[in-house]
């Protein structure tokens, strides 16, 4: 029997799905209920979705049947016969599944601007999980003015201090999907140490651990590191072990953007594995990849090591997006020492002739000491510039670094330094650096879930001032269209499992990720024959198609492929939450 977890729904009798019972058996049992009840009046539900193929999230094949929701909760499924719904939807020929989990979302700011989360909700995402490396809290008052100065197109007041307060701010403001977050390992480090490249003292480390404890008690899912970006890259393994240990004490997990996804991929995985073993905590690899053509063959050895660790009893999992290009900033093409001290110190170094010369040399020199994504991509022609802060530079959006280098008459490394210094931002950048063969290989892995690694923008307003990676609009639809329907990499029921129950269970989230009585009414109705991602690198602001209806906590958010305007999303909290009664 599933536990009710950390979210309370209306008090009503529900029938629970037993562990290990298949959907087909349950449907058969439910179909006998009318005979057992004799002439009892037909029940009435708030919503009945009729005649769809139900994929319950377990990985079992789909079974045609009905689904009933009352309030925010699934209460029945099977052949509901004469039961009536105040609202009824004919889902004949459609798939009906639990809402999808975006395991790594950067909708932290886009949902402040537009709580509808359009690009994700129209793909069936009903839970945004945030916090890679940097989370939106804790942020002390002393850093709020600085953080405000770093904002780009989306401007907002920072009305919170803790991570829990940020999540509650989103819920109060109104969001369509549910929201959850890790506490970023970099966030308490900056709060205590600033941007310095040094180890914390024992006293400073204890202050960092206190901030993690606070976040875990507010419902953080665990601790998340991002180890190629400064100042997160300054953290050594013992520091990360200490942070992960606190997360584990509250039932949370450790999740990491590895210290290298390229030249030192296998060494970075060993550090990750050391942390998981030392702490005895479940651990996940963010957006697994082998970056750079010379590193593509390493994926087989990495997969072997993961499966060996899993066979030994370690709970190691991973997630990915369904593209061969990554996206971050030009900071990922410059040496970490140049960024010590924070963004302003970085911009100052980029304006110093002597330091520029050194930075430029290192940018163009292969090294195993730091992760250089420009070289991993193969060169400036495979580096696409997609996001600028200054209006005077936005005309360069959509051009490659090679093209801008030619326009400006300066070498690529000089052009990159100039753009960062002029824009006073990291400059949003797409790097083409992965193998299509590896993407398919990873999708086939049973321990892989999925993410966008992007915001949740809309095809209107302020979002059009920058170009996101198309994964912001298509990562989940691309899985179901290209890799499930067209290429058959995994069957639909397995893809649904890894979009729903698998990530929910890995994160310790209860009552979500399944179609089962007693679970929250997060439901997606989509057409497996037509679901398609439409966004491209040249024209990324295009919604996916094929999702007909989406419900979040029993409330319809998408009807016939269009947003209803509803914002019923809630904060979803991790197992360490201590807020009962609040």
Summary, kept brief:
The protein is of the alpha/beta class and 582 residues long. The chain has 20 helices and 21 strands.
Description:
- The chain is of the alpha/beta class and about 575 residues long.
- Helices cover about 30% and strands about 20% of the residues.
- The chain is built from 20 helices and 21 strands.
- The strands form 4 sheets. Strands 1, 2, 3, 4, 5, 18, 19, 20 and 21 form a 9-stranded mixed beta sheet that branches. A 6-stranded parallel beta sheet has the order 9-10-11-12-13-17. A 3-stranded parallel beta sheet has the order 6-7-8.
- Strand 10 (about 220-225), helix 9 (about 235-250) and strand 11 form a beta-alpha-beta unit.
- Residues about 1-20 and about 25-40 have low confidence and may be disordered.
Number of strands: 21
- Major beta sheet summary: 9 strands, mixed
Supply the number of helical segments: 20
DSSP strand (E) fraction?
Answer: 15-25%
Task: Explain the layout of strands and helices.
Layout: H1 23-31, H2 33-36, E1 44-54, E2 63-70, E3 73-78, E4 84-90, E5 95-98, E6 100-102, H3 110-113, H4 118-121, E7 125-130, H5 141-149, H6 163-173, E8 178-181, E9 183-184, H7 186-193, H8 202-217, E10 222-226, H9 237-249, E11 253-257, H10 265-279, E12 283-285, H11 298-311, E13 316-320, E14 325-329, H12 343-350, H13 353-363, H14 373-377, E15 383-387, H15 401-408, H16 412-423, E16 428-432, H17 436-443, E17 448-450, H18 471-486, H19 492-499, H20 501-506, E18 523-526, E19 547-552, E20 555-559, E21 562-563
Parallel strand pairs: 1-4, 1-5, 6-7, 7-8, 9-10, 10-11, 11-12, 12-13, 13-17
Antiparallel strand pairs: 1-2, 2-3, 5-18, 14-16, 15-16, 18-19, 19-20, 20-21
Helix pairs in contact: 7-8, 8-9, 9-10, 10-11, 12-16, 15-16
């Amino acid at each position: 029997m599933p536990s009710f977890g950390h979210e309370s729904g209306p008090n009503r009798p529900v029938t629970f799905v037993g562990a290990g019972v298949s959907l087909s058996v349950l449907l058969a049992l439910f179909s006998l209920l009318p005979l057992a009840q004799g002439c009892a009046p037909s029940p009435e539900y708030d919503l009945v979705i009729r005649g769809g193929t139900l994929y319950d999230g377990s990985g079992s094949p789909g079974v045609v049947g009905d689904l009933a929701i009352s309030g925010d909760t699934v209460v029945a499924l099977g052949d509901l016969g004469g039961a009536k719904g105040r609202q009824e939807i004919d889902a004949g020929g459609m798939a009906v599944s639990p809402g999808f989990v975006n395991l790594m979302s950067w909708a932290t700011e886009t949902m402040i601007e537009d709580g509808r989360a359009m690009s994700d909700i129209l793909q069936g995402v009903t839970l945004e999980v945030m916090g890679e490396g940097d989370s939106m809290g804790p942020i002390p008052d002393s850093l709020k003015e600085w953080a405000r100065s770093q904002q780009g197109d989306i401007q907002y007041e920072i009305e919170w201090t803790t991570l829990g307060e940020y999540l509650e701010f989103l819920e109060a403001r109104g969001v369509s999907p549910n929201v959850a977050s890790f506490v970023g390992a970099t966030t308490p480090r900056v709060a205590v140490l600033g941007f310095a490249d040094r180890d914390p003292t024992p006293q400073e480390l204890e202050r960092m651990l206190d901030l993690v404890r606070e976040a875990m008690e507010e419902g953080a899912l665990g601790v998340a590191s991002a180890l190629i970006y400064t100042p997160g890259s300054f953290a050594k393994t013992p520091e990360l072990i200490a942070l992960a240990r606190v997360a584990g004490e509250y039932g949370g997990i450790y999740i990491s953007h590895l210290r290298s996804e390229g030249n030192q991929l296998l060494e970075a995985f060993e550090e990750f594995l050391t942390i998981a073993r030392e702490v005895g905590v479940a651990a996940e690899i963010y957006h697994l990849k082998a970056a750079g053509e010379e590193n593509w063959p390493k994926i087989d050895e990495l997969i072997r090591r993961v499966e060996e660790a899993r066979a030994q009893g370690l709970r190691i999992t991973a997630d990915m997006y369904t593209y061969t290009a990554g996206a971050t900033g030009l900071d990922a093409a410059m040496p970490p020492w140049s960024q010590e001290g924070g963004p302003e110190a970085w911009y100052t170094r980029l304006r110093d002739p002597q330091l520029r010369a050194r930075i430029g040399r290192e940018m163009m020199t292969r090294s195993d000491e730091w992760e250089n994504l420009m070289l991993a991509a193969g060169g400036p022609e495979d580096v696409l510039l997609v996001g600028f802060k200054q209006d005077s530079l936005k005309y360069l959006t959509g051009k490659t670094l090679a093209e801008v280098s030619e326009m400006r008459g300066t070498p690529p490394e000089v052009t990159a330094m100039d753009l960062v210094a002029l824009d006073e931002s990291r400059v949003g950048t797409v790097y083409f650096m992965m193998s299509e063969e590896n993407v398919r290989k990873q999708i086939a892995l049973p321990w892989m879930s999925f993410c966008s690694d992007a915001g949740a923008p809309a095809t209107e307003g302020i979002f059009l001032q920058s170009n996101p990676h198309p994964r912001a609009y298509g990562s989940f639809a691309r899985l179901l269209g290209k890799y499930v329907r067209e290429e058959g990499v995994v069957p639909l029921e397995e893809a649904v499992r890894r979009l729903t129950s698998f990530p929910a269970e890995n994160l310790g989230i209860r009552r979500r990720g399944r179609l089962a009585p007693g679970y929250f009414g997060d439901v997606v109705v989509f057409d497996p024959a037509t679901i398609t991602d439409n966004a491209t690198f040249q024209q990324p602001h295009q919604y996916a198609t094929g999702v007909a209806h989406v419900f979040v906590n029993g409330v319809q958010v998408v009807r016939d492929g269009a947003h209803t305007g509803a914002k019923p999303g809630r904060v979803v909290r991790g197992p360490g939450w201590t807020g009962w009664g609040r």
